[in-house]
Structures are given as C-alpha cells and as structure tokens.
Amino acid sequence: DIQMTQSPSSLSASVGDRVTITCRASQDIGIYLAWYQHKPGTVPILLISTASTLQSGVPSRFGGTKSGTDFTLTISSLQPEDVATYYCQKYNTAPWTFGQGTKVEIK
Amino acid sequence: EVQLVESGGGLIQPGGSLRLACATSGFTFNNYWMHWVRQAPGKGLEWVSRINRDGSEANYADSVKGRFTITRDNAKSTVSLQMNGLTGEDTAIYFCGKIGGGAVPVDVWGKGITVTVSS
Fold first, then answer.
1. Is the pLDDT of residue B101 over 90?
2. Is B38 part of the contact surface with chain A (CB cutoff 8 Å)?
3. DSSP strand pairing (B10-12 vs B113-117)
4. Which terminus of chain A is more exposed, N or C, with fewer CB under 10 A?
5. By the CB < 8 Å criterion, does B101 face chain A?
6. pLDDT 10s digits, A7-53
7. Contact between residue A88 and residue B35 where contact means Cβ atoms under 8 Å apart
8. What CA–CA distance (Å, rounded) separates A61 from A49?
9. Kind of pairing, strands B78-83 and B68-73?
10. Which among A50, A98, A100 has the least Cβ separation from residue B103?
C-alpha cells in the first residue's frame, strides 16, 4: 500500500505567520490528495481536494500545491481560529490513507 | 441539508461484536459511495472502509479486514458497519461520511459515535 508521510507532527507559530505542512506519498497518486482540518470534539472539515482545489467557504488563506509526490498545505497568514490538527489523505485508490496529522498551535 | 447520524456505539467486551449504523438524509443516497473512518483516543484519523453505490464493492483497511463488514440499504438511505472480533485497538470515535461529486473525497461527515472495547 502507498504510505503518506506528513510533517511536521506539530508546529507553533505566531498570528500572521505563514505556515507550511508537507505530505509525501510513497508512490504516484496523481492529484488525488485532500487536506482536512480537525478540531477536538468536531467533525473533520474538507479544505482542499485534488491537491489544490479550495472547497467552497474555506478562507483563501489556505492553499495547496503539488510537486511530484510531494504535497503542501499553506496557511498564508495564521489566524487564532486555525488552531487544529491538519491531515492529508490520498484518495486515488483504496485504502484512502491519512497522513499522521500536524497539530498547529499559536505561539 | 445533508445529514448523517451514526448510532449503535457503546461499551463492548473484547471479542464481542457491534453494528454501527449511519442514517442519512438530504441527498440522493444511492448516488454516492459511503465511508467510515475512526479516531482512537489521542491518535489521528484512520480510514476504515468504503462501499460503492449499489453495495457490490467494498474496501477495508488492513487493520479491520476480515473482521469488519460494510453494507448499505439504499431503500433506507443507511450504511452500516458490522464489527466482529473487537479488541482494544478498535476503541475509537467512528465517523461515517459521504463523498462529494466528481473528484471530491468525503465532504460531509456525521458527528461520530464512540465505541469502547474493554472488559
């Protein structure tokens, strides 16, 4: 099965900082990579599909890029409400594996 | 409004069985693949299973293969997860989800249901 390696596992940044989270697939998954935001006690929110397509209603400070088998989620200006754990997920074929998650906190 | 509501969770002894159900409304159920994912305490999200639109195809994570079975009832707009041979590693919040249209993965989730496996 294809493995998804997400990094870092956690980060702390100041409000207004640019934040980058990376997810690497062990094999080619095309563009079938999603990013979710998950806050404790709530349901995951789909932020980005097909590596870079922002979902309706998601703030434009969130962005996704792809370079080969490396995928990046960028928050251009971190806001207090962005405190959450972020997950990548491959969905080209089953299993739809998640990355290990990145916990984002405010410094 | 799209709604997914899980039920059937609870406390179960190791080796036991439990059947989760996900009742849906607000969309044409038989047009969408359905998924289950889970989150164990202090752990990340783990994809569990999916089923196609007519119930003829299902996939499972290696961790549950042979123990869990996903089914759907398109007449009742529900998807179920039969869980057998439960262990402590299956303790988690279980979420059902529907995929979006086109190349969109799961875009709506239920609120989740807790399964605790303990003696």
1. no
2. no
3. parallel
4. C
5. no
6. 999 999 999 999 999 999 999 999 999 999 999 999 999 999 999 99
7. no
8. 15
9. antiparallel
10. A50
